[in-house]
């Protein structure tokens, strides 16, 4: 099992981490002296983000749904740091679209990234953790849209709900190797992407019972808890971080 008193020199992979929630997860991990493989599909974003976080962080550019990229990240973690302890499958894609006109191409891409990328990253990571025989933590990034209907997000919502079922199912597969697997489901969050949406903060401040949308630090704090040694007896669970939105669920 992971030492419950010590983060130092553990190694993590975080996908989709060039900015926003993923970057903040990496920042909080490196602050705890965790070694991080920071993935993003945008090479410049990945490189610049890793540079900001210091020598413990190595950029790995590539499509997180690509099997070669997935195995490459695991191999890089082991070659650079000797082990792999934590995986956060944060990369995801949102393609809005009306159900009646949603295209097969959009559907397949959402499933490829959100489900396929997460599934096969967990598989590759778990195989390495099993080999190490020292436990580990895997975390999927879901969404409140996997709990409550949201207009034009039927494909995205079903992909996120499926990740929560994947985490529950993997309890059977991974618990014998002391590997925990959990999910965080963020609500509306202010990131570089959403801040460019005029009215986003005002709208979600009105709709969220706690009076504001989340910020990346809110989501990262939940992730850090679930992948920490302190949460070693928590597995197969989903933690919703939405300021209470799913309790009342008003749509914008």
Verbal overview:
The structure is a single chain. Strand 4 (86-89), helix 4 and strand 5 (136-141) form a beta-alpha-beta unit. The relative contact order is 0.15. Helix 3 runs parallel beside helix 4 (104-132). The chain has a single domain, classed as NAD(P)-binding Rossmann-like Domain (Rossmann fold). It is of the alpha/beta class. The chain has 8 helices and 7 strands. The longest helix is centred in the middle third of the chain and has 29 residues, at 104-132. The termini are far apart.
**How much strand?**
5-15%
CATH superfamily: NAD(P)-binding Rossmann-like Domain
- Indicate the overall shape: globular
**What's the number of domains?**
1
Name the quaternary structure. Answer: single chain
**Helix percentage:** 40-55%
Q: Quick one: how many beta strands?
A: 7
Query: CATH fold name, please?
Result: Rossmann fold
Question: What does the radius of gyration come to?
Answer: 17 Å
CATH architecture: 3-Layer(aba) Sandwich
Q: Under the CATH scheme, which class?
A: Alpha Beta
Determine the number of helices (DSSP H or I, runs of at least 4 residues).
8
Residue stretches low in confidence (pLDDT < 50, at least 5 long) are 1-5
Considering the chains and any ligands shown, give keywords for the structure:
252 residues, Rossmann fold, seven-stranded parallel β-sheet
Briefly say what this structure is.
This protein has helices spanning 20-31, 43-53, 67-81, 104-132, 154-174, 200-207, 216-226, 245-248; strands at residues 11-14, 35-40, 57-61, 86-89, 136-141, 179-186, 238-241. It has a 7-stranded parallel β-sheet with strand order 3-2-1-4-5-6-7, sandwiched between helices. It has one domain (11-241): Rossmann fold, CATH 3.40.50.
């Amino acid at each position: 099992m992971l030492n419950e008193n010590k983060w130092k020199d553990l190694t993590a992979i975080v996908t989709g981490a060039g900015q926003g929630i993923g970057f903040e997860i990496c920042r909080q991990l490196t602050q705890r002296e965790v070694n991080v493989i920071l993935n993003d599909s945008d090479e410049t974003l990945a490189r610049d983000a890793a540079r900001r976080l210091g020598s413990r962080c190595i950029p790995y550019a590539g499509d997180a749904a690509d099997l070669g990229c997935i195995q490459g990240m695991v191999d890089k973690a082991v070659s650079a740091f000797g082990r792999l302890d934590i995986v956060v499958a944060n990369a995801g894609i949102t393609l809005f679209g009306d159900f009646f006109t949603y295209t097969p191409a959009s559907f397949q891409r959402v499933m490829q990234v959100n489900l396929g990328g997460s599934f096969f990253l967990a598989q590759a990571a778990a195989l390495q953790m099993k080999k190490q025989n020292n436990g580990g933590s895997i975390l999927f990034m879901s969404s409140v849209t996997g709990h409550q209907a949201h207009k034009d997000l039927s494909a995205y919502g079903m992909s996120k709900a499926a990740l929560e079922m994947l985490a529950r199912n993997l309890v059977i597969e991974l618990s014998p190797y002391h590997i925990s697997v959990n999910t965080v489901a963020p609500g509306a969050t202010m990131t570089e992407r959403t801040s460019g949406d005029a009215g986003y903060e005002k709208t979600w401040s009105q709709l969220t019972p706690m009076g504001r949308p989340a910020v990346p630090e809110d989501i990262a704090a939940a992730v850090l808890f679930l992948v920490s040694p302190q949460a070693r007896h928590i597995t197969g669970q989903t933690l919703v971080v939405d300021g209470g939105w799913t309790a009342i669920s008003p749509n914008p």
